[in-house]
Amino acid sequence: MEKIPILRIEDLYKQFPVTRKFIDRIKRSPKQVVHAVDGVSFTVAQGEILALVGESGSGKTTVGMNVLGLQVPTKGRILFDGHDVSDWATGRLRSGKNGDGLGRLSRRKQILSLRRRAQMVFQDPYESLNPRQTIWEIVVEPLEIHNLGLRANEKEARVRAALEDCGLAPADHFWSRYPDELSGGQRQRVVVAGALVLEPELLVADEPVSMLDVSIRADILTLLQSLRKARDITIIYTTHDLATAGYFTDRMAVMYLGRVVELGPTVEVLKEPRHPYTQALVSVAPVPNPRKRRQRVILQGEVPNPIDIPSGCRFHPRCPIATDECKKTDPPYVEISAEHEAACLKI
Ligand SMILES: Nc1ncnc2c1ncn2[C@@H]1O[C@H](COP(=O)(O)OP(=O)(O)OP(=O)(O)O)[C@@H](O)[C@H]1O
Ligand SMILES: [Mg+2]
After folding, report:
1. Residue 240: CB within 6 Å of ligand 1?
2. What angle do CA 153, 156, 162 make, to 5 degrees?
3. Rounded Cα gap, residues 149 and 1, in angstroms
4. Does 36 contact ligand 1 (Cβ within 6 A)?
5. How many structural domains compose the chain?
6. Domain end position, chosen among 156, 176, 200
7. DSSP 206-262
């Protein structure tokens, strides 16, 4: 596979104001912020499936929201197909190069066309579908919103292809039904179809199977994998579950407290994790390769508060091999192999 980056994230930061309730509880100054994403950089190649894994609160959803222009980054750049989309959410769009000479109207058009090219699949198929809309209405809606000027038969062809590519075939068997007439797995297929109908090139699938019954999770992941083949789509799959990530992703980025601590080919990261945090996650995950099962590493303590990121290496308070140096020095990335890197002073 030729590796053309469709997405490049450069030193992304996203901070949120601390709510009053939170301040009272921890008695901190109101100037403090939640460091949700704290210096994240990675690229995603065209047609690749990247897993973004980490415990709850590590910043996975925030990365996805910023990539799709649903939030404005505090700092950093996001380049989608060479265009700087960091301020999508504000309606502005900068060129990745030095100014593209576009007027306001063409810039708006450019934003809309780029927005179509990147879509999100949310976690909960029960919440993301309106129970009063038929499957047809749900899947055709993005086409209406984007006002693509399609004729009725073109719309029908798009909805049919989206539903059938998602395993809901024949499409007309499903489109007059309502969500509560479908199973959980079928509903999640409808959610995916609603994202696909705009024919996006990038899909951010945010915990798309965590609300589903274990028995149907693999079906939905196989579906995502098949979309890459059928539509050459690029996917960012966010999850806290290493086992499902190991099942179908090409590369894996492991996040801890807003930072990617290890990034590499999924097989390599699961087989030979190098960051102590990844090693701990892998040691307790039901990932394949039982012969090489390591001793279980149970991490001590809780994930620290993202208002107060620990000094030096942010993982040091919980790290089983931390030394004094780790309290002082923020570790740079160490290259392990051509595509594999980890941020730890002890490598
Ligand atoms: N809108 C917001 N306002 C304030 N804090 C936020 C907001 N969104 C996220 N956060 C905080 O930012 C941090 C990262 O949150 P995020 O939802 O990105 O994590 P996540 O890795 O997706 O977690 P999960 O696995 O629970 O979905 C958390 O501490 C969260 O409480
Ligand atoms: Mg999340």
Report:
1. yes
2. 145
3. 34
4. yes
5. 2
6. 200
7. ESTTTTS-HHHHHHHHHHHHHHHHHH--EEEEEES-HHHHHHH-SEEEEEETTEEEE
Domain membership of residue 97 (yes or no) is: no
pLDDT over 60 (residue 80): yes
Same domain, residue pair 195 and 235: no
Of 184, 200, 216, the position where a domain reaches its end is 200
Protein residue with its CA nearest to atom 28 in ligand 1: 57
Judge whether 88 lies within some domain.
Answer: no
pLDDT value, residue 214? 87
Domain that holds residue 156: 131-200
Q: 29 C-alpha to center of ligand 1: Å?
A: 20
Q: Which ligand is nearest to the CA of 37?
A: 1
- State whether 32 and 67 are in the same domain: yes
Q: What is the pLDDT of residues 311-321, one digit of tens each?
A: 999 999 999 99
pLDDT tens-digit readout, 38-48: 999 999 999 99
Same domain for 146 and 184, yes or no, is yes
Cα distances (angstroms) measured from residue 150 to each of 146, 153, 162: 10, 8, 15
- Is the minimum distance from the CB of 266 to ligand 1 under 6 angstroms? no
170 and 284 co-located in one domain: no
CA of 59 to the centre of ligand 1 (A): 6
Helix (H) or strand (E) holding 111: helix 104-116
| CB of 58 shorter than 6 A to ligand 1 | yes
